[in-house]
Design brief:
Length: about 500
């Protein structure tokens, strides 16, 4: 009996032990798998967000809505991943998700530009009401380009014709002009020299914006569009120039600030939560000497309007302009200027709006006092800098649609921001130059981020609240803004849950 038992153990026992080992190994494997899953999740940018029961319920509904959208587009053989924003825009607008993102409180828009944030169709319709509005209807030359708008009284430059007369006599011109003011990436595979075309859009309206009567209407419309889109705060990369009218001529630079303050005050009568900051912006293609002058002006304005001017930026195509590093003498002098003017001038530089590792602008971001980074697309290729940006708690302002229109990303699933978010880099969602891309508000960008990056309510909430937490609002303004946003958010969660029952 004993022997038989021993034989049994000898014959079957070892395999049995082996089997037990296998079970152990599998359970260690499972444990490790679960631990790794949690460890990865703990590194993500939204790890500190804990959802309420209502938010968890909403999350499940959002998940189903996206699933349904993917099933439906699949059935209809719509190439969701290889189509441009332009091609998908009607589909986006018809979707339930879009309706939800339009109504979602979005906090602040931290990255947009003075020349690109008000509906171009409105620009045309409003400009034509001024008898002094003209349009250039000749072929491009060194000074003017076809479709360029401007206000003139008395001597009108050669080649310009009355805008209203032109629109009345040529019924097709309104659409033609709108197309000249909007940049489309019709299909992902068509060739366009995007930055050349992009800059032409700004040039075409550049003479309109400093005309004081139009200026006031333009910003009021832009701010109201944001308010209606549930955006409570905006920070504009603002190119300062002297406003003018035909009665008084030119006004000092600060008139644009006091005018904007007046417009904001008017909006605040009905929407007391609305706030504005301006980031003094100049151009990367200028030389350090000119930037020195620009910085002096920025400091002068900030000294007088410390609550309006939040910082300084340099814009333009990074592939064509000077590197951030080439302005090092300017950055080194910032402390000295801060002492001279008694105010700080944080930088909000565009950096890494590029797919190339030869563009090293992102390196400066961790060395400079640059609390927010515009775009940061190639940050993922600089792991040490990525680690520093995370440690320094700096935010990357992501503009998904802009990145696709300008040719940096095609399939939105491959947007670098996904890598940043999973690595714990804080980001916010922005529209950059929505009017140039043919839309208003932030709903489209949130739709794109949610659908293509497989976000959940936790991520959405973090992105929304980041836009206030990383804004340039001062501590008391931020506190007020967060109270408003929290209340709006809770309201949105409750109402949307009811709607999606
Ligand atoms: Zn920008």
């Amino acid at each position: 009996m004993k022997r038989r038992y021993l034989t049994y153990i000898l014959l079957f026992g070892f395999p049995l032990f082996g089997c037990q080992n296998k079970v152990n190994a599998q359970s260690t494997y499972q444990q490790e798998w679960m631990a790794l899953k949690q460890q990865n999740e703990a590194l993500a940018f939204d790890a500190d967000i804990h959802l309420s029961d209502a938010e968890t319920a909403l999350d499940k509904k959002f998940f189903q809505l996206r699933k349904q959208l993917l099933t439906d587009t699949n059935k209809q053989k719509i190439s969701l991943f290889n189509s441009s924003f332009e091609e998908l825009k009607p589909l986006i607008e018809r979707s339930t998700l879009f309706e939800i993102f339009q109504s979602m409180p979005k906090g602040g828009l931290l990255h947009t530009h003075s020349g690109g944030f008000t509906d171009v169709k409105w620009v045309i319709a409003t400009a034509r009401k001024y008898k002094e509005a003209y349009v250039y209807d000749q072929a491009d030359n060194d000074q003017f380009i076809f479709g360029q708008l401007g206000f003139f009284e008395g001597k009108v430059p050669e080649g310009f014709v009355s805008l209203n007369k032109k629109l009345t006599s040529d019924p097709g011109f309104e659409k033609k002009l709108a197309d000249l003011l909007i940049l489309k990436r019709d299909q992902l595979c068509t060739y366009t020299d995007y930055w050349i075309e992009f800059e032409k859009r700004f040039k075409r309206i550049s003479l309109l914006l400093p005309y004081r009567p139009f200026f006031k209407e333009y910003y009021k419309k832009g701010f109201m569009d944001l308010v209606q889109n549930n955006v409570q705060h905006v920070e504009i990369r603002y190119i300062f120039e002297e406003l003018y009218d035909f009665k008084k001529g030119k006004y000092p630079l600060k008139t644009s600030i006091t005018d904007l303050q007046d417009i904001v005050k008017e909006i605040q009568k009905e929407h007391p939560e609305f706030s504005l900051k301006l980031i003094y912006s100049s151009f990367k293609f200028l030389d350090p000497k000119s930037i020195e002058k620009q910085l002096e002006t920025a400091f002068e304005l900030k000294k007088e309007f410390p609550d309006v001017i939040s910082g300084f930026d340099l814009v333009a195509d990074e592939a064509a302009g000077n590197s951030v590093y080439s302005f090092r003498e300017n950055w080194v002098k910032l402390d000295e200027l801060s002492k001279k003017y008694g105010v700080k001038m944080p930088l909000f530089l565009h950096a890494g709006e590029s797919n190339s590792v030869f563009n090293k602008n992102i390196l400066d971001m961790s060395v400079l006092n640059n609390p927010r980074i515009g775009h940061g697309l190639n940050l993922i290729y600089f792991p040490k800098t990525m680690e520093l940006i995370k440690k320094q708690n700096k935010l990357v302002e992501v503009s998904p649609i802009s990145n696709q229109v300008l040719g940096y990303v095609s399939d939105m699933r491959n947007h670098p921001a996904r890598v940043l978010l999973s690595n714990g880099i804080q980001c916010s969602i922005n529209s950059d130059d929505p009017s140039v891309y043919g839309y208003e508000g932030l709903g489209y960008d949130f739709w794109v981020a949610f659908v293509y990056w497989e976000l959940d309510v936790k991520a959405l909430k973090k992105l929304v609240f980041n836009s206030i937490n990383y804004s340039s609002l001062n501590e008391s303004e931020k506190k007020k803004a967060l109270t408003h946003l929290t209340q709006q958010w809770d309201d949105f969660v409750q109402k949307t849950n009811q709607k999606l029952k």
